[in-house]
């Protein structure tokens, strides 16, 4: 389904508003999101941890 011109304009105007944190305080706070969200999940679910060192990578 193609996006209408009206919707495309609305999307672009909306994208201008969502540029992420701008202040040093905001950037510092958002950089800690991984510590608050991702790391605790790994400690609660150690079975989800996968050893990727044996997997072939793009430079193997």
Summarize the structure.
With 60 residues, this protein is an all-alpha fold. It has helices spanning 5-17, 24-31, 33-44.
Shape: flat
Give Rg in angstroms.
20 Å
Q: Give the topology string: H per helix, E per strand.
A: HHH
What structural category characterises the helix and strand content?
Answer: mainly alpha
Largest sheet: none
Helix content: 55-70%
Low-confidence spans: pLDDT under 50, at least 5 residues?
none
Question: How many strand units?
Answer: 0
Oligomer: single chain
Strand content is under 5%
Give a description of the structure:
Residues 38-50 have a biased composition (Basic and acidic residues). Residues 13-60 are annotated as: Disordered. This protein starts with a helix and ends in a 16-residue tail after the last helix. It is mainly alpha-helical and 60 residues long. The model has no long low-confidence stretch (mean pLDDT 78). The chain contains three helices and no strands. The protein is flat and about 45 Å long. The chain is 55% helix and 0% strand. The protein has helices at residues 5-17, 24-31, 33-44.
